[in-house]
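Fold it.
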Amino acid sequence: MKRCRITHKIYKLGLLVLLGCFSGGLIHAEDLHIKCIVVWATNDETSKYKEISPELEKKLLVAPYKWKHYYEVHKTNTVLAPKQTKKLKMSEHCLLEATNPNDGRIQVNLVGEGKPVSKNVEPLKVGQTVAFSGDAKNDAGWFVMIHRYDPKAKQDSKGENGKDVKSDADVKAEHAK
């Protein structure tokens, strides 16, 4: 009788340990903290937009793009909770729909001038940047760069001037006060 109880308790303990091991691998709830930048690429030296940061410009100039000048159209930060989708108006012509599939990747749907441009799912680790692009008129181009940052490392969430780039939620919260 005692032997049966001990065996039964060991069985229950083993089952709990086994379930704990499996569920630990399945649970991956992690927010994605991302900075999104719409970049206008052209060979024209003048633009109504401001120039991108020198660090980003260095990366783009060594990339296999045909343009010589890159300008920042819009920049915003946002946080995607697991399984959350957000629609971000990046410009009057560009809508970004970003989803956190909760597996270390980001799903991006780009819409340009009301038409689907691209749909991608890319791995996105902290510190990594991915770019999604579309064609434009007059031998120019545009793309959206998405950088995943660590919210604890403040420099990643700051703009060129050292000020925090506010998310849509931050701006709404300030206006609600």
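Residues 15-26, 157-177 have pLDDT under 50 and may be disordered.
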